[in-house]
């Protein structure tokens, strides 16, 4: 079977890795317009799923999240973990609006620790926060993980090619299975009007003393990564296509983060970044269909629309996408 994965971000590369693991004798190619400049590169990479994240059903969504956590945790337990950019991290979530804000129904039964913050722990940050939680989770640093994933794919005979795709249908001539992991690009390729951009801007600062993450409200977060680089965020500009850096937004982000942790005032800015998250209004799309182009037919599986949770849930949606592909292939063979 000849398989093509469209998309060079975390969802595409993880899907390709899972395909080679599940179906060893297949021929896999990954096509992307760019492998080095994707929204995945901007992400802080912390495994934290927002309460609004949604698949087709709650049961399937929990399966995606559980499978994703186990995938990264398995990497963490190996000697590959520093090269793959996967590690454990602990930290705090503080809020004033509601006690529900610091709870998380996706995470609480999944991660090893998720508990209420103690009175002493509230003293770690400025401002008089009413509610707080402490939890331990995983971090996947994409600037390490994506090159590691590409290397693993090439070691397993997967071809990585730079190519612009104008139509999914045209791929049916050359491929038996097409995995559509194009993120925001699916808006044009699939005519998906439910898919919109969610602009985000972050600062990367040098702060070697930071070992724990901190979240406040108003999309304020401080997340340490590898090499003493800390991500300060953030923003969520709905339906914005602007990829230019906004100095006022950077100043506002830095002010909010420094209000939470004044020690960050001495942190030097390394770079500022903007990314367009592929936000899908209904839910993440992981669906299968059969496409026909003349005498050629192919199985097409969509796997896109993860919003700001692509890094966190890519392995789980990849598993599910491959499962759908195998079921469709099995039913096609049975009909013959």
TrEMBL record:
Keyword tRNA-binding: no
CC cofactor: FAD
UniProt-listed InterPro entries: D-amino_acid_oxidase_CS, DAO, FAD-dep_OxRdtase
Gene3D superfamilies to which the protein is assigned, alphabetical: D-Amino Acid Oxidase, subunit A, domain 2, NAD(P)-binding Rossmann-like Domain
Keyword Oxidoreductase appears in the UniProt entry: yes
Domain FAD dependent oxidoreductase: start-end pairs: 2-322
Family to which this protein belongs: Belongs to the DAMOX/DASOX family.
Protein name per UniProt: FAD dependent oxidoreductase domain-containing protein
